[in-house]
Design goal:
37% of the residues lie in helices and 17% in strands. The structure holds iron/sulfur cluster.
Length: 183
């Protein structure tokens, strides 16, 4: 349901639902006619039907009005729907970045693989990989000394992984920060 001026006039923020506040924030961001909008979990509190409306609005602003978006989310499905490029981050570090389809389907970085394989719909596929990933449980000391923060969980960890941060390496058009791909 759309929000009219009559619905919002004279109300305090606490009188709106989370979803309504998100929609108002998005509208407010558009008033200045920006060339770039940064959105952080913009549809997380919005019900499924309204979610598609907002995602389609973003798509049309991107494709027709040439407004760029940085879309920050934990929801890979909406990220895939809206994005040209996706960057996967682990603890504040970009570990893989490239065209959305390549990143999500080809999955070069061990963390990207683990992240996607553990989603419910993918859990039955490539089970071999899930078995190779060590269970969570951070060894704090190891985490602090690691140049590379995923090393404490990675089955493929080599000596160099805790000594030097991996560069971004081009793998079939995707940039991957992992020593596995260093030639
Ligand atoms: S750099 Fe090393 S620890 Fe990090 S993902 Fe690659 S193999 Fe695993």
């Amino acid at each position: 349901m759309s929000l009219s001026f009559k619905d919002i006039k004279g109300k305090y923020p606490r009188e709106f639902s989370g979803g309504e506040l998100q929609r108002i924030s998005i509208t407010r961001a558009l008033l200045s006619k920006p060339s770039l909008i940064i959105v952080d979990e913009p549809v997380s509190m919005i019900d499924a039907s309204m979610r598609m409306n907002i995602l389609n609005m973003f798509k049309s602003l991107k494709d027709d009005d040439k407004i760029s978006f940085i879309y920050v989310t934990h929801d890979l499905a909406t990220a895939y729907y809206i994005s040209d490029d996706i960057a996967i981050m682990y603890r504040g570090v970009i570990v893989e970045v490239g065209p959305a389809e390549k990143v999500l389907i080809e999955r070069y970085h061990p963390y990207t693989k683990a992240l996607i394989e553990t989603l419910p719909e993918y859990s039955k596929r490539n089970e071999w990989f899930a078995k190779k990933v060590k269970p969570p449980g951070i060894e704090v000391k190891e985490f602090m000394i690691s140049y590379y923060k995923y090393a404490h969980l990675c089955h493929f960890k080599m000596d160099i992984c805790t000594q030097k941060r991996p560069p971004m390496i081009d793998v079939n058009g995707v940039k991957v920060s992992c020593w596995l791909y260093k030639k």
